[in-house]
Amino acid sequence: METKSEFIDIGKNVTAVLSWSPKGILAVGLSTGAIQLYESGALIGTLEQHSKPVSSMAWDPKGNILATGARDNTIALWKEGAEKATLKGHKGPIYQVAWSPDSELLASCSGDRSIRLWRDNDSLSTMTGHTGAVTSLSWSPNGELLASGSADSTIRLWKRNGTEEAVLKGHEKALARVEWHPEIDSQLLASSAYDYKVRLWREGKEYALLEGHKDRVFGLTWSHDGKTLASGGGFKDAEIRLWSHNGDPAEVLKGHTSSIYQLGWRFQGDILASSSFDSTVRLWRDNKEVAVLEGLMGPALDIAWSPDGQFIACAGTGSVGIWNLQEE
Predict the structure, then answer these.
(1) Which of 89, 210, 238, 275 suits a disulfide with 198, CB 3.0-4.6 Å?
(2) Between these two residues, 132 and 121, which has the higher pLDDT value?
């Protein structure tokens, strides 16, 4: 596969997190605290509110509001390039922000061991129970349940009103990712952790244990049709493993030479992207490597697909790479 690349200079030693809106706006949240907005490769705005690194960003599913969480313990909401609100209440750094599928609720999790639910500018619920930092969130496709993964090695399920539904125990070390299966009525949840394991959960109980990785499992993502789960291993591993929706091993993808950081299927569902500490992004189709995207300095970290699937962006150190897929 042929690709054409361009690189955005974000500043020496600056890192970033990325989020591409359904309307085609790429948000780049910087470790300086600023957020840059790009459209068709051109800078269209810079948003400044946070005083510490931006750690998570999410556009609401309608593409109207950008939520940004930072290590200054605050969340900012932005609309049409201007600040809409600053949400305060967390006592520790924000690790993730996540919109409900209907765009009505925003969830946030923090190093203060709590999860908060917000509607508009108001805090609706503060959910406590985890005994370690809460680092990962995932809404069920129907928006009725929120899963939270924590450094305390547990997963908790929360109802939309903030009440606790279940505590899932099985992992032996800190959680890395939690990801709901994409089918609208699915009760299937995947999780990955520092114990080298991937687990599947159904209706609050462990459904399958997926073994094979030889290091912590950072990357985890379902294909958009829900048929395949991809997981990416750490430094001693550097492999991507593909699993069926019921946990059966399918393929092992090899090519990276250092830890997998993130995985992401493009919206059209046919290409899987992987970023790695080896400074490359690799594209996989039909279980084969079809492109190696190079040029970033330092580890290749956060990745984001454009909504039309023609572009993929990845953040390195000091730059963000954007590759145009030249498909036949």
Answers:
(1) 210
(2) 132
Looking at residue 184, its pLDDT comes to 84
Tokens representing 62? Answer: 């309608």
Cα 122 from Cα 134, distance rounded (Å): 21
- Residues facing residue 148 across a β-bridge: 137, 156
Query: Mean pLDDT throughout 272-290?
Result: 97
Q: Radius of gyration (Cα) for the chain, nearest Å? A: 18
Are 204 and 242 spatial neighbours (Cβ–Cβ below 8 Å)?
no
Map out the domains of the chain with their CATH numbers.
Answer: 17-289 (2.130.10.10)
How far are the Cα atoms of 210, 227, 240, 286, 319 from residue 250, in angstroms, in the given order?
A: 11, 11, 11, 12, 35
Whether residue 328 is predicted with pLDDT greater than 70 in this model: the reply is no
pLDDT tens, position by position, 123-148? 999 999 999 999 999 999 999 999 99
